[in-house]
Amino acid sequence: MATSVRLRRLGITAVAAAGGSTLLLRDPSISTSDRGAAAPALDTLRHRIANANGVVPPRSAHRSALIASTAADPVDILVIGGGATGCGVALDAAARGLRVGLVEREDFASGTSSRSTKLIHGGVRYLEKAVFNLDYGQLKLVFHALKERKQLIDNAPHLCHALPCMTPCFGWFEVVYYWMGLKFYDLVAAGRLLHLSRYFSAQESVELFPTLAKKGNGRDLKGTVVYYDGQMNDSRVNVGLACTAAISGAAVLNHAEVISLHKDKTSGRIIGARIRDNLSGEEFDTFAKIIVNAAGPFCDSVRKLADKDVQPMICPSSGVHIILPDYYSPEGMGLIVPKTKDGRVVFMLPWLGRTVAGTTDSDTIITMLPEPHEDEIQFILDAISDYLNVKVRRTDVLSAWSGIRPLATDPSAKNTESISRDHVVCEDFPGLLTITGGKWTTYRSMAEDTVDTAVKSAKLKPNNPCLTNYLRLIGGDGWEPSSFTVLAQEYMRMKRSFSGKVVPGVMDTAAAKHLSQAYGTLAKHVASIAQNENLGKRLAHGYPFLEAEVAYCARNEYCESAVDFIARRTRLAFLDTDAANRALPRVIEILASEHKWDKAKQNEEFQTAQRFLQTFKSTKNAQFHDGKHT
């Protein structure tokens, strides 16, 4: 079998500027002339996204578009998988003027893409390896990731931001080592630098991070080096990709599963797929000139539909994260320890009003609902306790989850040394192109590589080159950090009491900031629902999520289930499992009104959501067997 394997293009040049203090990075994949030629298409697409005003085609329209394809009139590309990479491919291809379809078995971001570290990073560890191993390949990985880091923050400014990260130093050698290393990280970032790194004394560090311990493993804190990476609301970026792709012309269908592939009887080339709509149970065929397999950890399952004896290319790795109360870390400052006493990396970052800590990196099995093990949770708690002056308690864990990293191997390799954190684009069956590996930060360039390969393989004829370098996601164009003030000044939260009486309430700063940062310039539509439809009440005590969001997401973000809402449209399941459980009845009640569910369907939704939440090992629903807990 002929196999074409292509690792990501690393065509990045570094040129020292005058004075030797700056690097100029250039990606040759889009030339200056290409940008000029693509400008009219880009402007048209930007206007199309802006003029849509957040209104996306209904799910039924996407389903009809997929059904309408035939063997004689196929879509150009059919994408399997609605994670960051799959939705990125759909957006990239649609922006080029290609006919695109996408199907996702569960929901957008239902897998790895909602269970990430939430960091948008260039890879400090890769830079360290590049220097000490004199590995130019690792250095190019860092160049590329830093370019994409800035691009992602620019393209979704309401969902992504720069985050300072503090690295504690308990010896003067560590101070010099980390200061020099992170200055080199700044230098490599060059024009895409977020902010300069700097050293803080021990006293200054404790003022910035009050829970930081002054002693660690018997050594006094000598200071910290603070550098910057990015942070995001991962699943909402993913949903934004799906909605932007839909407005751009792609037919995107969540809760739709590929159950078989169609092959041309003469050539053997894969020409389509049999798809089951998991909401209705109905099946239909979609035909495509080429199919992109972007199923993440489940890539091999799709490949086996083409050949049940195919050699696996996924080496799954588990990454566990926990959520702790906000007092563990100050707002706006993270803590990253590059090397703990057992050699692992551990971090603690502020995220959506709470603290996320992690992570682990261990072998795992591939499953739809991965669960963290108690020893993994305890490892994270033990690791961060060495660097904090507060008592770290298992009872403080509000939520804990596991995500599966789809580490990729070259299927034609003869050993496992090819396992990579980089991505692989592979057409090992005619008509089926697989993209896997990589990381969230570089999803956009992964998608670009995939579409470039698909265009070449299927001889497609796009109208223009890749535009996603310059394309903001829905809600991002025109957004400013101060946009929340308009919501606070112009909207009320009309709340219906238990007695049925409508009570006016202010759009407080917490709610206004949340809506602005979650929906960008479209937040006014959510606020309007809260005001005009009496859905301004909070869904859970202590959290800014409003009832209006359930209705908005059902109408404009393809939110088809209670789990879709509590896990991906908002992050309540990830932030506080028990709060999500308490909010479920009201979430289901509003969704039932939007989707016309009967009582049986509502009960089914409640049971499904509770089973989902049981996989998030908060203190209340965790199972202890160590004899230390009751």
From TrEMBL:
FAD dependent oxidoreductase domain ranges (all copies): 76-444
InterPro entries: DAO_C, DAO_C_sf, FAD-dep_OxRdtase, FAD/NAD-bd_sf, G3P_DH_FAD-dep
Top class in the EC scheme: oxidoreductase
GO terms for MF: glycerol-3-phosphate dehydrogenase (quinone) activity
Record keywords, A-Z: FAD, Flavoprotein, Mitochondrion, Oxidoreductase, Transit peptide
Cofactor(s) this protein requires: FAD
One term under GO cellular component: mitochondrion
Record-linked SUPFAM superfamilies: FAD-linked reductases, C-terminal domain, FAD/NAD(P)-binding domain
This enzyme's EC code(s): 1.1.5.3
Catalytic reactions of this protein: a quinone + sn-glycerol 3-phosphate = dihydroxyacetone phosphate + a quinol
GO biological process: glycerol-3-phosphate metabolic process
Domain annotation Alpha-glycerophosphate oxidase C-terminal: ranges: 466-601
Subcellular location(s) per record: Mitochondrion
Family membership noted in the UniProt record: Belongs to the FAD-dependent glycerol-3-phosphate dehydrogenase family.
Protein name per the record: Glycerol-3-phosphate dehydrogenase
